[in-house]
Design a protein that fits this description.
Strand 1, helix 1 and strand 2 form a beta-alpha-beta unit. The protein is globular, with a radius of gyration of 16 Å. The protein has six helices and eight strands, in the order βαβαβαβαβαβαββ. Helix 1 runs parallel beside helix 2 and helix 1 runs parallel beside helix 6. 32% of the residues are buried. The chain has a single domain, classed as SPOUT methyltransferase, trefoil knot domain (Alpha/beta knot). The protein is an alpha/beta fold and 177 residues long. The structure holds S-adenosylmethionine. The site of S-adenosylmethionine has 17 residues, from strand 4 and helix 6.
Length: 177
Amino acid sequence: EVVVCRLGHRPGRDDRMTTHVGLTARALGADRVIFPDNATDAVETAEDITDRFGGPFTAELVEKPAAVVRNWEGPIAHLTMYGEPVQTVESEIRSTVTEGDDPLLVVVGAEKVPFEMYEQADWNVGVTNQPHSEIAGLAVFLDRLFDGDELDREWVDASRKVVPKETGKLVLPVSEE
Ligand code: SAM
């Protein structure tokens, strides 16, 4: 299991970013996302998209995401521009997910990340050592973790499905079997 944890959320300013952390986690193969409890809209959007386009995927609110990290029993990968290059640690992290039973927690920040996070993580992972975005970092990290397999996954319990088209848009209802 792969769980994404968003450390902070500034209502207004972070609304789209937090929502997109959830949608990116879902689309690129994570099983679950954890948001701070002031990010209710982001949970609703993740649930709405999962209802329509399928899952399994869950989104939840917690009072203190930092406490989730502190008490996490499985491995923890914290995405940060100061970390070790993703290309050097990805195979080790992938082995812990495929060979171990404990869920991997992937932590992304918002504003300033407390120093404890760097100490609590088993890996501090840089997707380049350049400053950019938690959404971009998460997308590249998950794609590396799953080695691209997430691009071919099947979605369960969807009510609609996009049919890829060279031009135009085609969305079909999915009949229940
Ligand atoms: N300035 C903040 C700090 O130093 O703690 C970080 C702000 S940054 C806009 C928000 C988040 O994006 C970070 O916490 C990190 O999770 C992610 N991020 C930004 N650049 C990254 C990179 N090169 N590799 C991995 N994650 C990155």
